[in-house]
């Protein structure tokens, strides 16, 4: 591959861009057709060419010296030795053989959760899983960190959540027919830069602005004012974090006692209203969940709750609940309450109203859909049946053989001897990183494929350098977008990096396997085959696609949006008997017999107020601030943290933490100070950003600063600002066993003295 001078289109999860190559220099400009392009693009050159790039295969020192079974030293602490590809692949081949012979494929964890990169062919997890499946399978993970409570709960009460996200009511129907939008957790525009697999045009901001121009009123219940874009002119109300369930109960109680609810809708489309209304009225537990009770839990004045409930009942109202709210202890409850409230308002299935979960989690939700399934790289069949709910990684590694409950089942943790991760960063995404560090000492071998020296790579034994999107040829297409985006190889593979396909094809040869993985095809042949299937599909939509080569040299190709005026659950509303839901009763389940039969106190059969262990309503004498850790504006998760846009918002190199002026003043902290954020689980440094845009007693430290523990210091202080050293590793509930990062209490003090150097970007090479 020769260096190609000039501009080239490419795609990322945060949208298309134009990469300009000038000798060794890379620069990025937005795609001219994207009305609201993402600045995350600016991270590409600095990060992919930066010092944190993995240059050669590398092996941890004492692993190289002693092998997998002898004294292993401490993962995450030790340096690495660079080795040849030949040697790295030999080590992996013999270790795969040993572990499979001694312990079987059910001792290999290759769940490998993570976002990896855009591109239909070079999808890291698909490549790894197809390879593992070709040698007998692996223990996988189920669900995600994004909305696990929704994935498990919603099928019982309304239906498949992933389908529903695709079917979200479109914003143009809100513009045409809506009057009021109530957002719990807002719709932060910073999060809607991103869409899985990419998105050709970011139109959400304009779509929502059109609603405002048409007279729709927005209300933002959130600890952060800017969870609603300024253009929305939203009323801002800040409930105590973690109290939305109670707040919504106060609203539901008001609708109930003021007889403002739609009895007809309840009768025809739902089951279980009696159990919930008894609960709201306090008949089942003696606690009346009225607006004054809701004020005590949430801090929102009861008059406001009552006024808003009346307004909701009198207008075309859409309820939007951010999935961030369910990434918390009892995360099922705000979801179930959203469904109850919307059922009582009785506007589900009508244009511009009803409810939607996760509008702010992705640029495409309520905006666009794909016209057809895009081609993908088949993962094959996994012969190992065992799996874990994705967030149970630490439990699995620390307590093999232990039993646990999940979604009505009792399961047993496998005994994992080997981990292989490609395309994810658990030392970014998992909670309680000090615990994860301990868990990561347990396996005999850990292999990580990575582009950069992330904390996960540093906690591995064998690290393989991987090519980035602009160093390989691919076809870009967002899972919920109507466009395909060319992804030609733009620069040569950097240093000794290889694509995942090259890695696994080489291993296939080395292990002398039959060719189930590669089918004896080159990556070019695979891409041609995928393109051919896309061409055939496109023909069915009366579209003629050019050759793959033409496409790669050309521009984005867009198809018609299949459902521009979609209304969520419209068919069900038209005829609940003809188009029943997929729930056990075919109706909306406000009480679920099935969930009740599991007898989980942490997730009973109807929406229930179960305060989290850590929130401002609990004992705050030691740690008096509620920390929210949402998504970063300047990156996708931890990706490309070395890039210029990501660095531009850091304060003295540390990630910013938002604090209310009163909280800062009480602690003698000024804007721009470096602070220590701490609790019993850990501590990190962060840069104070003082603002009235966050409510009192709450701080916001977004995720994704590369974990940089100072292991010489007893506290293992993270020097960079990673909130997951502070978050707890409790689960949402036994039902969904999801991550519950948002319910964490912390304390903050000013950092005094010399600032430690950040080492996160310095390669750990001896
Ligand atoms: N406290 C807290 N924690 C959270 C959240 C929160 O709200 N609060 N949010 C959670 C959510 S919703 C999510 S989805 C997770 C996200 O967690 P992850 O998806 O694990 O985060 P990423 O940083 O995207 O990790 C992707 C990694 O893959 C690498 N990569 C990219 N392309 C390739 C490739 O082609 N091959 C290989 N081998 N590697 C590649 C990148 O360099 C990067 O290190 O985080 C979760 N963690
Ligand atoms: N730029 C960028 N965008 C992203 C991502 C990224 O890494 N970077 N990640 C993507 C991914 S994988 C996902 S899953 C989505 C996640 O999308 P979300 O889950 O919607 O995002 P969060 O930022 O976790 O949460 C949204 C907001 O909820 C508010 N919130 C938190 N707790 C509470 C509460 O108890 N009550 C109320 N009312 N509000 C609360 C916070 O202020 C936060 O800003 O974002 C996607 N978008
Ligand atoms: Mo996510």
From TrEMBL:
Cofactor(s) the protein needs: Mo-bis(molybdopterin guanine dinucleotide)
Signal peptide per UniProt: none
Keyword Kinase applies: no
PROSITE patterns: MOLYBDOPTERIN_PROK_2, MOLYBDOPTERIN_PROK_3
UniProt-annotated stretches for the region Disordered: 1-52
Entry keyword annotation includes Oxidoreductase: yes
Keywords: Metal-binding, Molybdenum, Oxidoreductase, Periplasm
UniProt cross-references to InterPro entries, sorted A to Z: Asp_de-COase-like_dom_sf, CT_DMSOR/BSOR/TMAOR, Molybdopterin_N, MoPterin_dinucl-bd_dom, Mopterin_OxRdtase, Mopterin_OxRdtase_prok_CS, Prok_Mopterin_Oxidored
Domain Molybdopterin oxidoreductase N-terminal: 10-47
Superkingdom: Bacteria
Domain spans labelled Molybdopterin dinucleotide-binding: 625-743
Domain Molybdopterin oxidoreductase: 53-509
One Pfam entry name: Molydop_binding
Family the UniProt entry places it in: Belongs to the prokaryotic molybdopterin-containing oxidoreductase family.
Protein name as annotated: Molybdopterin-dependent oxidoreductase
Organism field: Marinomonas colpomeniae
